[in-house]
Design goal:
- The structure is a single chain.
- This protein is α/β, with parallel strands linked by helices.
- Helices cover 33% and strands 18% of the residues.
- It has 2 domains: 202 residues, Alpha/Beta hydrolase fold, catalytic domain (Rossmann fold, 3-Layer(aba) Sandwich); 52 residues, no CATH class.
- The protein contains 9 helices and 9 strands.
């Protein structure tokens, strides 16, 4: 197992795309790489969340980026929300700008949805896609109440602000099993019990709660995905069994006719303390490397 870098010095580049200016980081391989660039994408997480994981792949060129409207990638069209289609097109343009041929992609959460959308449209750009826990709620047997719960959380954010909405999201995302139909009618959890603010500061620009629900509501083109030249591997966390994103990953793998790969830890199993959350990044990196090298 490779040891992570203790110091990472990524090279930051800028890419203008329709309606936004993207910033992305390139960590060059320490020696001449034998594998294509590895693009790590997430949503709504920015590139800083991949700091630990990228350090385990110093034998490869690793590219991370901030999605439009998040972190350092500002929107230039005046819009306050981004769509799933925009994110997929942005990654398409980013890969084109790299001009390094087909890449490997590790997509986490909403980034896994972005990766699946990209492969359905531009399979020639991706050699292998590892889609880890894409939150495709619409594919669940309880998809209708799951989507209703997500819409309710979005409305709560618009009405009451960050604390109450994030408390509800944390409850929803950690639920084991089907989403209850009466979730929108359940009492609002006390934000303070989750370490969240009670007061509404008036802002409505949170990248998770303030953007549209395109990644959870998106209807995937499974005919295009099954026909793609890209090797698609769907991952799910060992500790998140029964949770919405884990169940959605299994549903996608079933529709693709493939077996999911179980990764160590939880939904953010690759994190090494970024955002105050830690998974099992060393073991996670081993599993990811094994998947990428199994051609």
């Amino acid at each position: 197992m490779s040891e992570p870098r203790t110091v990472t010095e990524p090279r930051t580049e800028t890419l203008d795309v329709p309606g936004a200016r993207l910033r992305y980081d390139v960590r060059d391989a320490e020696a001449e790489p034998t594998a294509p660039p590895l693009l790590m994408i997430a949503l709504p997480m920015d590139a800083t969340g991949f700091t630990t994981l990228a350090g385990h792949f110093r034998d490869r060129t690793v590219v991370t980026y901030d999605p439009r409207g998040i972190g350092r990638s500002e929107r230039t069209d005046g819009a306050t929300a981004s769509t799933a289609d925009e994110h997929a097109d942005d990654v398409h343009r980013l890969i084109s700008a790299l001009d390094a041929g087909p890449v490997d992609i590790f997509g986490s959460s909403g980034g896994a949805v972005t990766g699946l959308m990209l492969v359905a449209r531009h399979p020639e750009q991706v050699r292998t896609l590892v889609a880890h826990e894409p939150p495709a709620a619409s594919l669940l047997p309880d998809g209708e109440p799951a989507l209703a719960a997500l819409d309710h959380i979005h409305e709560t954010y618009r009405r009451e602000g960050f604390g109450p909405a994030m408390a509800k999201f944390m409850v929803l995302s950690s639920l084991k099993g089907p989403i209850p139909a009466d979730f929108p009618q359940l009492p609002t959890p006390n934000p303070a019990e989750f370490g969240l603010p009670i007061e509404d500061d008036g802002s409505r620009d949170d990248p998770l709660l303030g953007h549209d629900n395109g990644t959870t509501h998106y209807e995937h083109d499974f005919d295009a995905l099954r026909a793609a030249s890209t090797r698609i591997v769907v991952g799910a966390g060992a500790e998140s069994e029964g949770e919405m994103a884990h169940r959605a990953a299994l549903a996608i793998a079933e529709r693709l006719g493939t077996e999911p790969v179980i990764f160590p830890s939880h939904h953010g199993g690759f994190l090494g303390g970024e955002f105050g959350w830690r998974g099992e990044p060393e073991a996670f990196a081993v599993t990811l490397r094994d998947v990428l090298e199994e051609r």
